[in-house]
Amino acid sequence: MVCEDQVQTELPAAAERPDSRHGALGPLRRPGLLSPDKLKAAIATRAKAEGFSVMRVASTDAIPEAPGRLAGWLEAGHHGDMTWLTERTAERADPATLWPAARSVVMLGMSYAGEGDPLAVLQQRDRGAISLYARRRDYHDVIKGKLKSVASVLAARGEAEVKVFVDTAPVMEKPLAQAAGLGWQGKQTVLVSRRHGAWLFLGAIYTSAELPPDAPERDHCGSCTRCLDICPTKAFPAPYQLDSRRCIAYLTIEHQGHIDAEFRAGIGNRVFGCDDCLAVCPWNKFAEASHEARLALKSELGALPLADLAALDDAAFRMLFAGTPVKRTGRDRFIRNVLIAIGNSGDPALAASAEALLDDPSPLVRAMAAWALWQLAPDRAANLAPARLAQETDPDVRAEWTQPSPNQLEPA
Q1: Could you read off the pLDDT of 266-310 as tens digits, one per residue?
Q2: What does the entry list as the binding residues for cob(II)alamin (predicted)?
Q3: Residues 6 or more apart from 3 whose CB is under 8 A from it?
Q4: 3 is in an annotated binding site
Q5: Which CATH class is domain 14-115+136-207?
Q6: Which residues are catalytic?
Q7: Whether pTM exceeds 0.70
Q8: Residue 246 known to bind ligand
């Protein structure tokens, strides 16, 4: 996650250059500069050349309902321990507050749809399921450079100031994408496109150029509730509302502490993220597999054996997941997730992998190693518990040894 206070103008405005002064004749359009319509067409051409699947424009005042919706979501505590979401809320909900010079928001989407069923790995209980978006190079690194290329057209052909964002600032990408017409926020709160389904990476360019805005996309979910019904941990208190504290993606990626026993069985063998509510969307049938070479799926990250993942030390973890979003979570939290998957596997042979981590330096790992051992080899766990309690000082780890945590949700 890039620090949210690092909001910089990525490309200088032509108006800031010494030769951009209009002099006594006033603001005449310089040779080579484009009208707003032609400028929009030019950036669309560049966006397509850079591999973006869709590009649309919204005005900076296109999401007036955002402040109230954001405030209500935060007040309900649905952001969990993502405390950075509570900072700079006025700027997050209003592009013009973040950058008063902005007049338009260029929203771009890049498909990351894959081939085949991304949920098939969930049936392989001895394997780790990694979210489709994370089984490739980190999209932040890829898309930011492409956004800069598109933004350069605005600077060169429109004398416009620009800022580019890919999770780099308080920007509400999904509401802005809906306002620009890329798609609509589905009942699972993810952006859904009629052409690309639920598989779009989003990026934004704020610009001082006044570009013709596109019409917003209307909701096409209808009566469908597939995304809500499939959630293993019941993370949607109502359609169009997400309680992150119950979301497997949040729990396995963003959550820094221990994962409550209530959610462990529901996590199944998902070791990083969750694609369930995305993968079941009917609009995915129109999505074509991504052709962006720099975002190609890494075959070596598909359905990795849980025993192999549990054996990763920090160096091996960093090497295996170098350049991917998984690396940012860190080895300890990842192994915490792997041990939950081991505990859900139903395979007694994996008990040895859990036992091998009982002395891990991280209490996150030790706690879930104890939990997994109780699930797979309760007699062995009971025999070890007295000695473990005698030497363990961490209260959370001790709690796992005191009694096995009950599974309150069926594995999914």
Answers
A1: 999 999 999 999 999 999 999 988 888 888 888 889 899 999 999
A2: 92, 167, 191, 202, 274-275
A3: none
A4: no
A5: alpha beta
A6: 167
A7: yes
A8: no
